[in-house]
Amino acid sequence: MAAAGEGDQVRLAGRTKKPLGWKSIPFILVMVYIFFTQINRMSVFLFATNETFEKAASYGVAANLITYLIKRFYIGQLKATNITNIFFATLNFTPLIGAFISDSYLGRFKTLAHGCFASLLVCPSVHAQPRLL
C-alpha cells in the first residue's frame, strides 16, 4: 500500500517531483514586478497597447453578441446580457485555470501539446460549411 501523498508525485527522468500548487505564485509575481520595473519601456508600451485594443475588440463583440442573441434567438435583453457577461467572465477566467494546471501539474510542454491537439480537433468543426443542395 502506498504512503499518503505518494499518488501526487510525478516521475520525471528518474526524479520525483511534487506539484507546487500555489507555491509558484510568488515567483510569478516577482517576475511580473521585474518586467514592469525594468528600463524596457517600449515593451511595456506595446503590451499596454495590445491589451487596450484586445479589450476594445472584446467590448465590440459583446455588443454584437447581445444584438445577435436578441434578434436571431429571440432571447430577452436581460437574459442575453447575462449570457454575454457569463461568456466573457468565463473567457477571462480560464487562462488562470490553465496557468495553474500548467504550473502545478503538467508543465509547459505537456500543456502546449495538449492545447495544440485540442486546437487541431476544434479547427475543422468551426470552419464555414458549404451548403449542400
UniProtKB/TrEMBL annotation:
**PANTHER family, sorted:** OLIGOPEPTIDE TRANSPORTER-RELATED
The protein here is known as Nitrate transporter
Span-the-membrane segments of this chain are 20-36, 56-74, 86-106
Entries under Gene3D superfamilies matching the protein = MFS general substrate transporter like domains (1.20.1250.20)
Asked if the keyword RNA-binding belongs to this entry, the reply reads no
- Per its UniProt record, what InterPro entries does this chain match? MFS_trans_sf
What gene codes for this chain? ga08537
Q: Please report the organism this UniProt entry assigns to the protein.
A: Eleusine coracana subsp. coracana
Q: Highest taxon of the source? A: Eukaryota
* Record keywords: Membrane, Transmembrane, Transmembrane helix
